[in-house]
Design goal:
It contains 14 helices and nine strands.
């Protein structure tokens, strides 16, 4: 609750919405709305029915299983494509924003049960052109995924995200953490001074070509790494092809995830049904109450803006309590394409509320995979 009064927190939320709201890519979680109500500042984001990569890690460890390499290749391809879209973001004049995520960690990689992986949480993202962006010498991000130059507080660019993606790839293919332990200082020293262990030392079944591609992403000197997330993705595709391997199809990813995440997803669906039932009861009571008062017609636009339904729930996309609204704020109007704005307005008029906006967001996409 104390963060509500923190101007820095409010600015951070607005910055995240402004930056992430401009990215249009099937492998990046969409920002639908941002605003403030009685509960504080909120962001309404696309609901991804699935869970984070960190949750998947815990499930695999409990079962003492390792992710199939083909599934790992598909997850990494999705992650890298979304990351590249963020890096390539430009302003209205076509000038590159120089966006750097700085927190490409398993908590921010969402695995949809539909087989699509998406990148989320641009809360500490840095745009080179943004006033007040983090100064050199200040470190932000999770230690185990920091590039050497990031850990040292030096100037950074998109290659710190390439490094972090490389750590994710190493862990997916090795089946264990690259940097684990509670001693942050020791981990930082290791990151800065020691090249990461080669993949095949942990998992000899990994083809040498894939090992080399991941090792290049984890070069201590940024100039020796892949120069973009897209280059990294293409190198992985080529390495897998040379080894006679393939990336899993979406349906294969779904079959892999279902037994690992199915129980958690069903619990969320049950909670969603309960919320919708309570909302329906509330709506019916409201109609009965309204019928006893003289009706006063309002303009259509006012009815749309007044249809605000606030819901507090556990979101699969952030894992934090969040609020949402079905009203169209100025930000939503500015960042959403016309077709989606129209469909959100229709949902608001129909009283579908947050469920239609967030839970049904896949149906609102313009045919993107």
């Amino acid at each position: 609750l104390h963060v509500r009064e923190d101007p820095g927190f409010v600015v951070s939320v607005m910055d995240e919405a402004r930056l992430a709201g401009q990215i249009r890519h099937p492998n990046v979680v969409s920002v639908l709305d941002v605003g403030e109500d009685a509960l504080g500042v909120f962001i309404v984001m696309e609901y991804v029915e699935g869970d984070s990569l960190s949750v998947l890690w815990r499930s695999l460890r409990k079962r003492e299983e390792r992710m199939p390499l083909a599934v790992g290749l598909r997850l990494m391809d999705d992650l890298l494509r979304g990351l590249h879209a963020a890096h390539e973001l430009v302003d209205d004049d076509g000038k590159a924003l120089g966006l750097v995520h700085r927190d490409v960690t398993p908590h921010n990689v969402l695995l949809g049960i539909d087989g699509v992986t998406k990148l989320t949480d641009f809360g500490i993202a840095k745009a080179a052109s943004r006033p007040g962006s983090t100064a050199t010498g200040r470190v932000k991000g999770k230690i185990g995924y920091m590039a050497p130059e990031q850990a040292q507080g030096r100037s950074i660019d998109r290659r710190v995200d390439v490094w972090a993606a490389g750590v994710n790839a190493w862990e997916l293919f090795a089946g264990t953490r690259l940097y684990d332990g509670s001693n942050d200082a020791a981990i930082l020293l290791k990151i800065v001074r020691e090249p990461p262990m080669r993949l095949r030392a942990i998992n000899p079944e990994i083809p040498a070509a894939i090992e080399s591609v991941v090792a290049k992403a984890l070069a201590l000197d940024a100039s020796d790494r892949h120069d973009s997330a897209e280059t990294f993705a293409e190198a992985l595709v080529a390495a897998a092809r040379s080894a006679g391997m393939h990336r899993a199809e979406r349906s294969e990813v779904t079959r892999f995830l279902q037994p690992l995440l199915g129980e958690r997803l069903e619990e969320r669906r049950a909670k969603s049904r309960e919320v919708r039932a309570l909302r329906q009861q509330s709506t019916q009571l409201g109609r009965l109450d309204a019928s006893s008062r003289p009706s006063q017609p309002e303009p259509l636009l006012r009815r749309v803006e007044a249809t605000r339904v606030t819901e507090v729930g556990r979101s699969a996309s952030t894992g934090h309590t969040q609020t949402g609204t079905a009203g169209l704020s100025p930000l939503a109007s500015s960042i959403l394409p016309p077709r989606r704005r129209r469909m959100l307005a229709i949902s608001a008029i129909a009283g579908a509320g947050l469920t239609a906006v967030v839970l049904g967001v896949t149906a609102l996409d313009d045919g993107s995979e």
